Amino acid sequence: MITLQDLVVKASQRKGMIVAVAAAADIEVLSAVNSAIEKELASFLLFDDELHLQNLLVNHFPELLNSGKLSIVHTKDTAQAASLAVKAVSNSDANVLMKGNIATATILRAALNSDYGLRTGSVLSHVAAFEVPNYERLLFVTDAAMNIAPDLMTKAQIIRNSVTVANACGIEEPIVAPLAAIETVNPAMEPTTDAASLVAMNNRGQITGCIIDGPLALDNAISVNAAKQKGITTKTAGQADVLMVPNIEAGNILYKSLMYFANAKVGAIIQGAAAPIVLTSRADSAESKLYSLAIGILTVK
Amino acid sequence: MITLQDLVVKASQRKGMIVAVAAAADIEVLSAVNSAIEKELASFLLFDDELHLQNLLVNHFPELLNSGKLSIVHTKDTAQAASLAVKAVSNSDANVLMKGNIATATILRAALNSDYGLRTGSVLSHVAAFEVPNYERLLFVTDAAMNIAPDLMTKAQIIRNSVTVANACGIEEPIVAPLAAIETVNPAMEPTTDAASLVAMNNRGQITGCIIDGPLALDNAISVNAAKQKGITTKTAGQADVLMVPNIEAGNILYKSLMYFANAKVGAIIQGAAAPIVLTSRADSAESKLYSLAIGILTVK
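Output (structure tokens, whole complex):
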């Protein structure tokens, strides 16, 4: 199987990648930058108060100062750090946007700015790649963080975004399972009718590059035996690469369950803007931030 | 911590319990009955075709025939098996209703029959108790199977039902976490506003016997460290006994994730009728069916 570590190696083979970090003056953020530079993933443009940033680097990561992989751009506050980092990406001075010590809303506001932002007309969605102990496949979960209660056409775009990321990670024609509570169509349960429509959209070429099989409950999506036991006859049941959750609560609960109860590893990006956005949070481990950077770099067009 | 095995032992200490099984002529169902009788949990009334049932017992569980713990009631089809099993419970000839080899809809229809059923005017809801490897507490998840998209008042009743079950399992004043994708109130996310209302209902005595703390994301509900890291100051954050999911998809996905990715053990019942209902399915292990029976027996009034 493809592991998250494989993605780090693969990302290091893409040369010349540059990551713009909004509000980088933070030990944990710089630790992720340091680790990514050690793995030769990318060079970094750091946006923040220059003096503060220099002090942190001198005291904690002196090796970075002479790495030749860092440029610092002085900014006076987080809003400016966000707008200049976004502009660096939209001007093609950087390939990936990364959130530093800044509110998610602040960086997304800049990324969606209609003058200089990274809008493409597409939906922005969160795509996470999980490596679950004792499970045989890298599993992508989408959208656990951006879209609250996506309608059908938003779900279609969420799938397209996830296919782009899965492709970039080396999965050529991912199997996508729109999840529901059951594996049959029940008009009282919109996730089941939406799943049916998404399968039809896949059959009619409205969503391409993947095989969509749903509705499926989680067990039928990830276990061939569970699918057989339920009498599900599609060839792809039980073999999902992408789990498309019907709402943000289901996604967030799945995400946290995999992390806390199944000890999974994860990397994640926001896809759908002109460039991948890495939105790690303070609760993410250094390892997880590195995985997210690797996925972001791989997903650069 | 209280384990599911502890609940089996505790249930065996309740004497004179009788379980009515609708459509019992099935090896897996009888295997669960056999196991429950070995553990001295209950006696059983088995409703099904008598000849078929006798044959299965003679060939597979001959020791059961002379156990003194079985009575067989001949029924001509599953609908009759369901209605007579339900009547046995409503007539107080049995304390717990158990689904055998019969569609869930068939047994629920009988259980909800307005003439002879087990209606109480309350909401019926599914309550599952999970023992998660390396996790410190038995975790109740509700409602992962009955209510599709419960409104606020239904959620209140779902919580009351879960408190009854948690109490029966030995947890005196359970901490209930109404889960959402975030831990703050956001009017665009109904699970967060409902959680706020449920906390207020708890504060004003509209929901009693528990401490409700929400909205919480799953990590903040089950990890004190995660709650602290998010700056959540309530004393009960991170210590939930009951996880109330906002919709059936989130619940089903959490349920399956705990089973498939975290190797959890589970027992579950439907609560809110005049008697506990054990709705095990073919996919459940024998162990899981036994745990469900134990929880059902403990929850008998």
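The radius of gyration of chain A is 20 Å.
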